[in-house]
Design brief:
Layout lengths: L7 E5 L4 H13 L4 E3 L11 H11 L3 E4 L6 H4 L3 H22 L2 E7 L22 H14 L5 E6 L2 E2 L6 H11 L4 E4 L3 E2 L2 E2 H19 L6 H4 L5 E4 L6 E2 H14 L7 E4 L13 E2 L4 H7 L6 H16 L4
Parallel strand pairs: 1-2, 1-3, 3-4, 4-5, 5-10, 6-9, 7-12, 8-13
Antiparallel strand pairs: 8-11
Length: 317
């Protein structure tokens, strides 16, 4: 049985993969909960006054900060917009949360690291972003942690879903319609992460903290006292982009499609304006230790997303 949420949950970015997945999940598991999912006209994340005004008007119990500037390559020439969305806006949301004791859960990225080595990244590892997107997301983390807001920051990687624009959906379209081999990067390693799994994790954290808050006169700060901070949260298991594409190919072959071959190639074959990390492996043990949460194996979650996409994206055979 779900714990009652004594207030409104404000979700930014409900048109994105994680925000929309969380909105659906809340409607399924907590149909009575109060949800605020503002449009840009209602709360403009590029306008600090708009953010403050909206948050104060609804006085949320929780803020889920899932909106972001995610155009990694475009950020290289649009630094101001990237920092406004990924650094300034989360910082203001955290300041408002701190003023009222609201909790904030914020999504960040493995791009805060330099992407070298082969060991999975720990939360305590030194950060060193190699592109503007990563730098803006790190600044957002720092802005939140500089406040007294009860917060959980979830660094994730390689997010996909059964809707929206993402790598899994692109591969499904290409592999079901093309005949020539696809050359896919095979030297970047990480854990593909389902947006639905992230949404479930966010809601589980909220419920966990609210349950603990019952022992602290409803105080989220007291309930989160020993668990405030940064966590890594990515799909279990490691693969490459070519490996992820291979999983989509196997899915199609099992359904009778003549999917083309996938040829792994080095990152150097596809130069981009923004540097991409070769190592996006993430150690997620802290999340398991402090919240009892382990993300599903990436293969299982990819299959679920593909099942969602199959009815709308696959051509008739």
């Amino acid at each position: 049985m779900s714990v009652a949420i004594p207030g409104t949950i404000l979700i930014t970015g409900t048109s994105g993969q994680v925000g929309s997945a969380l909105l659906r999940l809340l409607n399924e598991r907590m149909p009575a909960v109060s949800i605020a999912a503002p449009t840009r006209a209602e709360m403009d994340l590029g306008n600090p006054d708009s953010i403050r005004s909206y948050v104060r008007s609804i006085n949320p119990r929780w803020i889920v900060s899932s909106a972001a500037y995610t155009a990694v390559d475009a950020a290289e020439s649009d630094r101001e917009a990237a920092f406004a969305a990924n650094a300034t806006a989360p910082g203001i949301l955290a300041e408002e949360a701190a003023a009222t004791g609201a909790g904030i859960i914020h999504l960040s990225t493995d791009y805060v690291f330099d992407g070298t080595g082969t060991r999975p990244w720990l939360e305590t590892d030194a950060t060193s972003p190699q592109n503007v997107y990563g730098a803006s997301k790190l600044a957002g983390e720092q802005a939140i942690t500089a406040t007294s807001a009860p917060h959980v920051i979830l660094r994730t990687s390689w997010v996909y879903s059964g809707g929206g624009k993402n790598f899994v959906r692109t591969m499904l379209r290409l592999l079901s319609t093309k005949t020539d081999p696809l050359r896919i990067v095979g030297d970047q390693h990480g854990g593909p992460t389902g947006a639905a799994d992230l949404a479930t994790t966010i809601l589980n954290i909220i419920e966990d903290v609210e349950t603990e808050a019952l022992n602290h006169q409803g105080s989220l700060s007291a309930a989160l006292a020993d668990r405030i901070g940064i966590y890594h949260c990515a799909g279990s298991g490691i693969t490459t982009w070519a490996g992820l594409a291979g999983a989509v190919r196997e899915y199609l072959i099992e359904r009778g499609f003549n999917a083309p071959e996938i040829i792994p190639v080095p990152t150097t074959e596809y130069p981009t304006p923004a540097a991409r990390p070769l190592n996006s492996r993430m150690n997620c043990e802290k999340l398991a230790t402090n919240f009892g949460i382990r993300m599903p194996e990436w293969q299982r979650s990819v299959a679920k997303a593909l099942d969602e996409l199959a009815s709308t994206d696959l051509p008739n055979k």
